[in-house]
């Protein structure tokens, strides 16, 4: 099952219009605040750190390039060709490789697994932005990439993030500048209950091996100068040991 055309076109439009400057996109916080803390959680629990790492939903590749300095082979994968254009331009040294991938399409996930073998997967804030009918297919694709030996580390907004986003969007001047394009392109975060993500994983044949909560940093600031952080939950999943 491929993702809907509306969803694909929304992301292409978003990334074609997105500035190239670091930090210009709402969730494009520096790795020291994002992939760095996540790496500290999942790297010690990887069954095989030498496996390829797939940064799924890599966007413009900010986190991918950081991860490429920590693992022997890193692949940044994204649905959007325009996002991957940003990623490649920002990585002239080729620290990572970048692939267009619809992970909800079974054949595409199988093809990448056939090329890489079992892989570890890092995915940050993608599932809650998916169309509801695509979520299980996406997690099934993650299970395909993980295979028998890999691990998946997923970070998703928790239910407590909704009032924070609603408050930002409903200010007297409307959404702040970096959040406004997300709504304008029709990719506003949707509701995914905290209990749904473990169920998606279990339905895909993966066990939740560890989980916790951690604020997800954004690049936006409140009027008082405090950085906007969104409540999130992280889960580490893999085949039952």
Automatic annotation (TrEMBL):
GO terms for molecular function: methyltransferase activity. SUPFAM superfamilies: S-adenosyl-L-methionine-dependent methyltransferases. This is Class I SAM-dependent methyltransferase. Keywords: Methyltransferase, Transferase. Coiled coil: none annotated. It comes from Streptomyces venetus. Residues 54-147 form the Methyltransferase domain. Gene3D superfamilies: Vaccinia Virus protein VP39. GO terms for biological process: methylation. InterPro entries: Methyltransf_25 (IPR041698), SAM-dependent_MTases_sf (IPR029063). It comes from the Bacteria.
